[in-house]
Amino acid sequence: MKTIDLQVKERRSKGSAEARRLRRAGVIPGVFYGSGKDAIPLAVEAAVLKKAVAGEGGNVILNLSFEGKDKTYPAILKDHQSDPLDRGLLHVDFMEIRMDKPIEASVHIELTGTAAGVNEGGVMDQTLREVRVRCLPADIPAGITFTVDEMEIGDSIKVSDLAPPADVEIIDEQEIAVASVIPPTILKEEPTEAELEEALEEGEEAGAAEGEEGAEEAEGKAGSEAAEPGQG
Question: 91, 81 in Cβ contact below 8 A?
Fold first, then answer.
């Protein structure tokens, strides 16, 4: 897991108006907290933060340094809020960590290769994109890979099939589905214009025949009823 230096600035002003002002200036408001510490409001340059956490699935150790202070704090980006429209960062939470104490983190699942079932026309359907792991901060992997080459149509993999690096524990439920190779969807061909006309003609002929049969039955019934009074 990469370690990156990141300088932040302690915020003195709070409130939504101040947060909007910071964002317009290209600065993201946030907080820094740790065990036994009060949360410290801070601000960080949006471009600098984006560059720091790019790649590695966002899992990086950040050596936070506050402007005007010499001490640094090992931390991770614990949480963030994004704009639902442009996905821009609105707020970030940094959590102090200890390098000798395990932590939990989300790690991307990367499927590699091409499944045999896909070569036969199937479709790879990945329903789980990341898993939660527990390990020392320095051991958090950029991702967990699984080679799908031998998967046939109808095959599936679960969390229990993933192989994390040594000293990394997956803490999600082992039976959760990760991906499967599903059969191809067979699309029904649209009928041609000639086929539609033929079906229409057949329907009209069938309707006419039924009409004639109905008329004959009605005539026969009427004749039978007319003959009844003369009987006996």
Answer: yes
Q: Fill in the amino acid letter for 61.
A: I
Average pLDDT for the chain: 85
What SS3 class is residue 186? coil
Q: Is 218 helix (H, G, I), strand (E, B) or coil?
A: helix
Q: Domain 104-182, CATH 2.170.120.20 — does that match?
A: yes
Q: Which residues of 53-63 are buried (b: 16+ CB within 10 A; e: fewer)?
A: beebbbbbbbe
Token couple for 144: 């967990």
pLDDT along the chain (232 residues), means of 10: 89 84 91 86 91 72 91 91 83 93 94 96 96 95 95 97 96 97 78 74 64 55 52 48
Q: What's the pTM value of the predicted model, to 2 decimals?
A: 0.69
Q: What is the dihedral of CA 34, 45, 84, 21, to 10 degrees?
A: 100
Q: Do the beta carbons of residue 51 and residue 6 sit within 8 Å?
A: no
Under CATH, which number does the domain 3-97 receive?
2.40.240.10
The encoded tokens of residue 102 equal 């395990």
- Tell me the β-bridge partners of 77: 94
List the domain boundaries for the chain.
3-97, 104-182
Amino acid 216: pLDDT: 55
Contact 76, 95 (CB under 8 A): yes
Provide the percentage of residues in the chain whose pLDDT is more than 90.
53
Q: Are 169 and 132 in contact (CB under 8 A)?
A: no
